What does this fold into?
Amino acid sequence: MFRKTLAFMTAFGAAVCMFVSCGDKNTDTGENLTKAETLSGKYQVCDIDGFSGNDSCLEFRTDGSFTMTHSSDDNCVRYTGSYKMSGDDITLSYRKFTNPGELKEAYSVFSDADEKQLTGFIEAANRSVDDEAEKYRISGETVCTEDGHGERKKLYSHIAEQICVFSLGSGLKGKDGRYSFCSSDSSISDISIPDGYQEEISRDINNINRFDKYTQEEGFTDGFDLSRHEWLVAVSGKNIVAFGIGRDFDSNVCSIIITDGADGDEKPETLRELYEFYTRRNK
It folds into this structure.
């Protein structure tokens, strides 16, 4: 349970968010929202691209307090605190956990736990609170952070992982002793795309995911379609060593290194960088 809970908190702690209205709220919006007491209602957590990879909501109340709720299939987490507005800028101040009883109330997975056992989780829970974004800016119906592509990046990374799982069983094989590539870009592919590869991946991903919220990105609006995205799988022999998905100019993502990875500044952040990273190792 501890691992599951920490993984849940980490996933949300890394999020970079924006909000789109998902409930009733005060009719005053945009420039009229200059005081805390005029902002109220629930807002779904999204990023600037309209991606919402989880069921997260922020509820503002006219007394200057808020509740941040993160939900998944097996857990629900609620953070509370106060907010202030200065013009269109909103600053959140999160309330830290001080006792096991507050954890039981905030985390649904702890609802039946012994409070004595929860004492050691307080520090970890407060680290998760510290990782939550604090500053947002409201403009009409939306609120966003300065770095607003976090949910898209998380989604593309999730899809890339599933591409890897599928590729492991699809018979992709590179040249022995060298890195080879299978990609949507034929100019960097030395392994041809297997027949039905993109269609089967798309079908498998659509069977286990819900993409009805991802309405701002081509290829997600009507379900996931791999053929409408740029992607790359790096292979060494029969081993998948890296994979990624996402257009370089807007997602700057999803290079996930499995083996022979790089740290720090050397780590690839785009598909082109991922390709160049492994081609250098062929020399």
The two ends are 46 Å apart (CA to CA). The helical segments are 2-13, 100-106, 115-118, 122-131, 150-168, 197-208, 248-251, 271-280. Residues 198 and 226 are 6 Å apart (CA to CA). The chain is about 30% helix and 25% strand.
